[in-house]
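Retro notes, item 3 of 5
We never archived the inputs for the FE2/S2 (inorganic) cluster complex last cycle. Fixing that now. Sequence and ligand:
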Amino acid sequence: MGVEIAFSLNGTPRRIVVRPGAALLEVLREQCGVTSVKDGCAPQGQCGSCLALVDGNPKVSCAMPATAVHGSVVLTLEGVSAEERDLTARAFAAAAGVQCGFCIPGIALRAKWLLDRHPAPSRAQIARAIDVHLCRCTGYVKILDAIELLARARRGEAWPEPVGRGRVGDRLARRHAEELALGQEPFVADLVRPGLLHGALVLSPHARARLRHLDVTRARALPGVVRVATAADVPGERWYGLLHDDWPGLVAVGEEVRCVGDVVAAVAAEDRHTAREAARLVEAEYEGLAPVLDPAASLAEHAPRVNPRHPNLLSRSVIRRGDVDAALAASAHVVAGTWQTQRIEHLYLEPECALAEVLPDGRVRLYSQGQGIFDDRRQVARFLGVPEERVHVELVPNGGAFGGKEDMSVQAQTALLAWLTGRPVMLQLSRDESIRLHPKRHPVTLHYTAGCDADGRLTAVRARLVGDSGAYASVGGKVLERAAGHACGPYRVPHVDVEALAVYTNNPPCGAMRGFGANQAHFAMEGCVDLLAKAAGIDPWDMRWRNALEVGDRFCTGQILEKSVGLKQTLLAVRPAYERARAEGRAVGIACGIKNSGIGNGVAEWGKARLVVETDGTVSLYNGYTEMGQGLLTVLTQFAVEVTGLPPHVFRAKVDTTFALGCGQTTGSRATLFGGNAVLSAARKLRADLDAGHALADLAGRVYAADVVVDDTTALGADVPRVKTHTSFGFATQVCVLDGEGRVAKVVAAHDVGRAVNPALCEGQIEGSIHMGLGYALTEDLPCEDGMPVTFKLRELGVLRAQDMPDVEVILVEEPEPEGPFGAKGVGEIGLVPTAAAVAGALEAFDGIRRYRLPMKDSPAARAMSVGRIRRQPALPRP
Ligand code: FES
Ligand code: FES
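Structure as it came back at the time:
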């Protein structure tokens, strides 16, 4: 029985029957077709993505009952005047304020509300106004720039000069930035199909238990339910995984559930609410089993096996070089300590969603927001028991990923429901479900001993790292392998003894997250460098300068660095700010960073591209990597523009399985490097035809192909004459300056990016990373009890708000990478690799306390933040 409401929506009277209890967001999206309001956290009301103006007042529509707008005037971005929409879109695009874009429509509407009242707000006023809104990508820097620009434009001031012609080095606006700013560029959840069903999952409430019985009778009987699927309905291989097939898409009766994100049933129904209601009616009986909750317990003798497909020790990575015992014994100074990092949540603003449909020719078309659509296709095809050619996957550029969308989330279950029903199915996770289901950043315990001589030159490092990888392998073994490889940071260390373990537990799985193990290792290693500097009486900047890697030096893995080592340039770039702050008596911390570009470690990697000249005068630009807000498709377009001389609007970037362009995951800061090289190669072929006198129109139908393989890296620890674990490395130095109260006042970040293909996007990646790094340092955490997160609330999870952000100054250093396109190398991850250590150093300078544990919530810097206080400890279901 519905409730009729009447209200004005964007100037049009509406009379609608709504579901009792429905939120305004549900009604706007599902009944009114409004897509500028996004569901980032419903019904929490803590991200701002769903903002609407109700009677002129900003309201988070997910937390507002639809019935409350009866008789009201509701405005969304769709109802704003064409002129204002145009100014808004142009301002966000020109200021590079849009990365993934998921948060932007809500912020843009908030900006309108603010600027209607305050035509010339200060930057602080803008930050205060958007504090309700969460952005995980930008660090808010360029969002504030965009709103300032919008304010000036609304006051009639001139626009800045155009941003160039889209060549390499130009600040070309991100692809589809204007549409994203207005909420008109669809994410998966915005797609519509006739006859669309909605899916919902039944998740295990237990971290470890045996599924004894499953009764779907009541769920199936609910009106509107079309299908309830269980493990018995999977026609193919139920277990999948990126590296190990150890993750069941549906847990079967008789099997164990291994974490609170395990799926035991999936429902398809006529609408989302009914699907969720039916999921609640699925009756599952479990036999409780004691969960394995930490790596030590997991590795203990007679510990229960967490995952039947693999022993509890997931991986062991070892690097040994020289004689560490002797070197430490001969060192002038030796320090030791145990550092501990925490589990954190990616908290991309767009929760996981997929849409699948069976095509008339019998193929399944899957719309995915994953970080590797070819891996999606492989795993979904096996799940359905069909050849890969029967599955076509299209990427819908996602609303943030940061590594958390590498593994399958809902793709397989969505495809199964479409397969079983013959109807299109969309399955979207709620925020809570998203947090339970996808892999996190590893908590790692790091025991370090490090030494230096009397001049502060590092002599040896011994490191023992243990990471909690949770219930499934994901890429956890690779994360700890990467941590091992980066265990000595960007420093010359002659004697090395490193061991890193990844261990299964019944906690939420851990896998890829921006930085991929390097962050954890740097927190400990940079701590050692600070401790040694203190012991040797050497200034922390100088200590780093004396040990900084240069061309010809050996990296921790044993690789001799032969080119493009810009670390010392980054140290020089921050020096004036560092010295000025110290001269002013400020508490200052400094840390350096190194991060590989390319997975390396003996893995063959590919860049693949196809340029297809279309009959309408455009050129489709296909590649195998994912756009997830980092601007990859814009950068690839700039490469094509640079080579062909054609304008950027000619190129239409596409990511789908039309061509065999599988490159694996968009990971390891490698998409610009390898995807770029492939586009370069394909574009040169097109250019050759253009130079031969052909007009583009004459070339319609031609496909310019390039597959570029990189297979010259060597496995970690391999006994080979020439160790080359990675193709390329990025370098950074960051300085953290505190104010007189111990709050973070400024971060100065100098980064060697090889070549800034698009300086605006480069800066945006680093600014966003610093935001993430500060949260990692101070406020972000995802504590679990009995394997269940103790909170799902966005503010408690600790992602910083606009007002929490200090000044950020980014300095781009260009030390060209000969193996990269136009000298470029990856910049997506390194931005937060040194941040936590720089903050720890600044805090020690402030209060004399060396902190070894993240997040550093006991610090004045953390206490000054508006987020990260976990207030509620819910009663947890126990087996
Ligand atoms: S979806 Fe409404 S505030 Fe997040
Ligand atoms: S641009 Fe703000 S969440 Fe991605």
